[in-house]
Write a structure and sequence with these properties.
Length: 465
């Protein structure tokens, strides 16, 4: 029996990426340093094969051909990010006219090719000069971010109609202030909470500016969150509590204030109990309440499975979210062994149903989903990588997304991570994610089997099976 999976009209087919991960030209044309440039200079050994952010995939020079390739596989949209330190090299001062020219060229080319630009303002790439005054720990940086956002709305808002303030704002909190996988490699729960809070304030200030700037009037603004459903090991009350707390820390800490305009009381109470509440200013609650998003991007890669703690945490160790739950390895889980992430396609459906039931069915889309695989040349046949595993991965997620839409979810698109292989932070080019492979020696792009497949899916607005 053939089943048709047809998606709503004007469904967004495309992919996502970020400035630092594809642009290259890290020290060219007036760009200031960001924390990745700095960290690589200090500790190149922390990066896979010691490949740093200097070159990445050279989109800075190859953007024209890349956008043609997008068009060629029937993308109608593509998310990129603006590099804050390229546009405003010291974060808070003069605008770099060469950066304006570059982003103007990219946006014009996208529009000429019929690929709508979705633009994110912050994708893990703090300007170094902003980090030197404390990064998100310093509220001045939140204000500088809002100014940078306003400059972007004014400069590019005539062409960009989908804006996103932050990509996965919980990740720099985790990486930079808890688990040591982003600069500045601090381990300190209280500082992590302050960083998360100021990130949220920077978001609300940017949304406020967006509503004020005339160009934004016909556009929409949102945030991109990595929502990792927290599945309990069992229905035992202790396991349920563990999953509720994990959900509060990793999902609701940004989801609730972005969409509902307030933090969950349970999270406030929990932080209060541990004397870990952030410093706030009067007026913040109204700022958050009045500046909720129009649109939500959902990045989904893997679920989070948890169980009640088996041993009490050592009170002398640094406080961690894991004081409240243990990670749970579900027997029989399906894994992507290269990235070490579980593959659980139904997670897409569960997220969408949660948004429908508890978040006013806010317009949303899958803004990232994807499968990073190591040594993909193994699958090369007649010059083309036969990435059937990626096609299956996408298809199974799309089926669940389709099911959610059938049941009333307000999902408007699906963007893969990523259009072409790109630089993955500490993992550099270890795992490849793209529809197009990138030869690091020559920078040549070659479509994988999945590129041909998605071209047809986008053209048909779905697939049958
Ligand atoms: C998301 C990020 O977390 O996942 C991307 O938005 C990232 O920047 C992607 O590259 C894939 O994860 P990773 O760590 O394998 O690159």
């Amino acid at each position: 029996m053939v089943t048709e999976y047809t998606f709503p009209e004007y469904f967004w087919w495309g992919a996502a990426t970020s400035a630092t991960q594809i642009e290259g030209a890290a020290d060219k044309d007036g760009k200031g340093k960001n924390i990745w440039d700095k960290w690589f200079e200090e500790q190149p050994e922390r990066f896979f094969d010691q490949v740093g952010p200097g070159q990445t995939s050279d989109f800075y020079h190859l953007y024209k051909e890349d956008i043609e390739r997008m068009k060629d596989i029937n993308f109608n949209s593509f998310r990129l990010s603006i590099s804050w330190s390229r546009l405003i090299p010291d974060g808070d001062g003069e605008v770099n006219s060469e950066a304006v020219e570059f982003y103007n060229n990219v946006l014009d080319e996208m529009i000429a090719q019929g690929v709508e630009p979705f633009v994110c303002l912050y994708h893990f790439d703090m300007p170094l000069s902003m980090q030197e005054i404390g990064g998100w720990e310093n509220r001045k940086v939140a204000e500088a971010f809002a100014r940078y956002a306003e400059i972007c709305f004014e400069t590019f808002g005539d062409r960009v109609k989908k804006w996103f303030t932050h990509n996965e704002p919980i990740v720099p909190v985790e990486g930079g202030y808890l688990y040591n996988f982003h600069y500045p490699n601090v381990v300190h729960f209280q500082r992590a909470v302050q960083v998360a809070y100021h990130t949220m304030i920077s978001h609300a200030l940017a949304v406020k500016n967006f509503r004020r700037v005339a160009n934004g009037a016909d556009g929409e603004i949102g945030i991109i969150l990595n929502l990792t459903p927290s599945y309990p090991r069992s229905n035992h009350p202790a396991d349920l509590k563990a999953s509720r707390i994990a959900d509060l820390f990793f999902n609701r800490s940004f989801l609730d204030p972005s969409v509902l305009g307030e933090y969950p009381q349970e999270l406030i109470d929990l932080l209060g109990e541990y004397e870990a509440l952030p410093q706030v200013e009067s007026g913040d609650a109204d700022l958050l309440k009045e500046n909720t998003v129009d649109l939500l991007g959902v990045n989904y890669y893997q679920p989070r499975r948890v169980k009640a703690k088996e041993n009490l945490p050592n009170p002398n160790s640094p406080m961690m979210p894991e004081w409240f739950f243990d990670h749970y390895e579900m027997p029989g889980r399906k894994m992507n062994p290269y990235r070490g992430w579980e593959i659980y396609e139904k997670g897409v459906y569960d997220i969408m149903m949660n948004l429908k039931e508890n978040y006013g069915n806010i317009p949303s889309f899958i803004s990232e989903n994807g499968m990073g695989v190591q040594n993909e040349e193994r699958f090369l046949e007649n010059g083309e990588i036969q990435d059937d595993y990626r096609i299956d991965f996408i298809k199974e997620h799309l089926k669940w997304l389709h099911q959610a839409i059938e049941e009333g979810a307000n999902a408007k698109g699906y963007h893969l991570w990523s259009f072409m292989d790109n630089w993955s932070w500490m993992n550099a080019y270890k795992n490849r994610y793209g529809y197009f492979s990138v030869n690091l020696e020559t920078m040549e792009r070659t479509p994988k089997k999945s590129a041909h497949w998605i071209r047809e899916v986008a053209k048909q607005n779905g697939f049958s099976e």
